[in-house]
Amino acid sequence: MFMLALLALHHQFGQHHVLHLVFNPQAHLNSQLLPELRAYNSVVLTNLGNTLCRLNCVDGALLCLHEAERHAPCDTNITLLIAYALHMQAIDEWDTNKGTLDEAVDEYHHVLADRPDDPVATDLLTLALELSICSVHIDTGQDEFALHSLDKI
Fold it and tell me: Is 85 a residue whose pLDDT tops 90?
């Protein structure tokens, strides 16, 4: 599906050179790219990552979003999308990968350090922390407390 999307962009807009630079490992050094091209790469990769996240392809979304963050390291919107994708991954892999939730909390804190009044980041951080508390109750065998906490979420 991903390759079909790239092929459609190539045929529809004739921007093979831009797409080639976005996904060509040889051209990924930021010092070699013009600022406009780095910004374009960031937008393309962010949109692709967001789309993959909505399709529940979280691993692919994280790859695209981390690459987008490399092209635009100061963009807190990308950081927020990474945090959300990590949060989704933590929920999907509840039993096997609890460290992902900690990473999501850290990313939410990075966003809130730059934008303290961001309501989306604040709400998502609250949900992630509540989920983290539930996981502690489950890990310690206090399932009834975990269920009570989950009812509040």
Answer: yes
Average pLDDT of the residues in 4-8: 52
CA distance 16 to 8: 10
Tokens of 148: 């009570």
Alpha-carbon distance values, 142 to 29, 90, 94, 148 (Å): 50, 20, 16, 10
User: How far, in Å, CA of 43 to CA of 72, rounded?
Assistant: 9
Q: Distance between CA 114 and CA 76 in Å, rounded? A: 7
pTM to 2 decimal places: 0.69
Which residues does 37 contact at the CB level (< 8 Å), separation at least 6? 18, 21
DSSP assignment of 67-100, as one string? HHHHH-TT-HHHHHHHHHHHHHHHHHTTTT--HH
- The single-letter DSSP state of residue 25 is G
Q: How far apart are CA 33 and CA 117, in angstroms?
A: 34
Closest CA to 103 of 90, 121, 122: 90
Name the pLDDT band for 87 (thresholds 50, 70, 90).
very high
